[in-house]
TrEMBL record:
Pfam families, A to Z: LysR_substrate
Protein name, per record: LysR family transcriptional regulator
Family stated for the protein in its record: Belongs to the LysR transcriptional regulatory family.
Sequence ranges assigned to domain LysR substrate-binding in this UniProt record: 13-81
InterPro entries recorded: LysR-type_TF_proteobact-type, LysR_subst-bd
Biological process per Gene Ontology, one example term: DNA-templated transcription
Alphabetical list of PANTHER family matching this protein: HTH-TYPE TRANSCRIPTIONAL REGULATOR (PTHR30537), HTH-TYPE TRANSCRIPTIONAL REGULATOR PGRR (PTHR30537:SF1)
Gene3D superfamilies according to UniProt: 3.40.190.290
Domain of life: Bacteria
GO molecular function annotations of the record: DNA-binding transcription factor activity; sequence-specific DNA binding
Length: 82
């Protein structure tokens, strides 16, 4: 997928590459804090624009409603409701 200025966007499946690029001073990384936590703790990265970070939204799960819900899905839903 082309990005700004012809750059390729690494995509969601490659957030580690985005973090690595930020550690190497290539630019800023907009990633989940948990993924960058180790680099933040070791002072390789620093959170910026803290007033602009969106609040976490509640987790939602969409699934088909039917009478015979598969057992693994039911167990997963019960786990999330915890």
């Amino acid at each position: 997928m082309p990005g700004v200025g012809g750059c390729q966007h690494p995509g969601l499946g490659n957030l580690r590459a985005v973090i690595r690029a930020a550690v190497l001073d290539v630019g800023c990384a907009y990633v989940y804090e948990a993924l960058a936590q180790q680099d933040i703790e070791q002072k390789r990265l620093q959170p910026i624009l803290l007033n602009w970070i969106p609040r976490a939204e509640p987790f939602c799960l969409y699934y088909p409603s039917r009478r015979q819900m598969p057992v693994p899905l039911r167990v997963f839903i019960d786990f999330l409701k915890g």
